[in-house]
Amino acid sequence: MASIAQKSALIICGDYMEDYEVMVPYVLLQSLGVRVDCVSPNKRPGDKCFTAVHDFMGFELYTELPGHFFTLNSDFNLVKPESYDALIVPGGRFTELLSDDDKVLKIVNIFAEADKPIFTSCHSQILLAAAGILKSKKCTAFTSLKPVIELAGGVWWEEPGVSSVRDITATVKDGNLISSIGWPGHGEYLKLLLHSIGAKVSRTRENSVLFICADYVEDYEINVPFRALQGLGCRVDAVSPTKTVAETCVTAIHDDEGGQICSEKRGHNFYVNANWSDVCVDKYDCIVFPGGRSPELLVSDEKVISLVKEFAEKGKVIAGIGQGQWVLAAAGVLKGKKCASSRGMKVIVKLAGGEVGESIEEGCVSHGKLVTATGWLALTDFVSQLSGVLGLSVVF
Q1: pTM of the prediction?
Q2: Which CATH class for the 8-198 domain?
Q3: Full pLDDT tens readout for the chain, 396 residues
Q4: Is it true that 8-198 and 204-395 share their CATH fold?
Q5: Alpha helix locations (H) across the chain?
Q6: What is the domain partition of the chain in residue ranges?
Q7: What is the CATH number of domain 204-395?
């Protein structure tokens, strides 16, 4: 969907960085052909970072839970800041450690001196303070960072009217510094990220995408494409048959922790932003079913199956990730279609008449208006292919 982009971004990572705040920009940029180098002091390419889920779960302060493992792809010691177009630092507790790392602060200062965009979120604004580049700059962050920003000479900005996580939408830009309170504001954050590196999004129409979810939907598989498509300017709605606007679906983190099958941990809360009763197929170009365990619930709901069939009858785009193919199989839309399938879904896909070849067992496959991916490891290709099928293109 993108032109060959001679663009690159550097993400400085560390243990217990916020899960969404590293994965969402990483996937979107890679899906557009941008080279994204992920590094961490004292770690090598191929090493993993622990990530953290930060969300409010009924207590005075956010809860921290273990997230997915994130694999680094570049060497911190070989970083040449002048070779990148943007710097991204996710939030999380690791930034407190990095704020005392002279090598990290030197990188931040080189980006600042070159007037290249620096993106921070949640707690990573502490690096801007430590690097001494906040003076007279407007900045936002998680509220506990307000005194830090002000002590560093920055101008604190807080989004008005925020009473819950779902109200957070704003990202603040002051010169080359772009700051966000955290992952709930990723829609605007991603638009500014793309603009800052010269991306121009074009489309044949105003695109609208509908996600179907329920409790224990896979954390990455619902949120990453949801936010990425928002960043590309799509209208994106998420509904659940049994929930209404502002209610949440608990998500599940499925990851390889050395067992014969993936482990499961609790993930973020995902906010439904539309009502099932208001869904009209004619308003949408595409329907997406993320994986996790939620498809086991959705596959038994006749309303859901009927909705998929109506999308198919009207020639709309239909997409599934991981276990999401279970619902597509039940709706009869896989017959004669090439499908990407994980090992665990292969039998179901084949029984439904889908074609799973060895060459397409991993990754993402498009066949006409059907787009399928094996799971969250294939999200970069999924976002790229789905965007292309929807008629979106990006040039730099």
Answers
A1: 0.96
A2: alpha beta
A3: 555 558 999 999 999 999 999 999 999 999 999 999 999 999 999 999 999 999 989 999 999 999 999 999 999 999 999 999 999 999 999 999 999 999 999 999 999 999 999 999 999 999 999 999 999 999 999 999 999 999 999 999 988 877 777 777 889 999 999 999 999 999 999 999 999 999 999 988 889 999 999 999 999 999 999 999 999 999 999 999 999 999 999 999 999 999 999 999 999 999 999 999 999 999 999 999 999 999 999 999 999 999 999 999 999 999 999 999 999 999 999 999 999 998 889 999 999 999 986 655 559 999 999 999 999 999 999 999 999 999 999 999
A4: yes
A5: 19-31, 94-98, 102-113, 125-131, 146-151, 186-196, 219-231, 294-298, 302-313, 325-330, 346-351, 379-389
A6: 8-198, 204-395
A7: 3.40.50.880
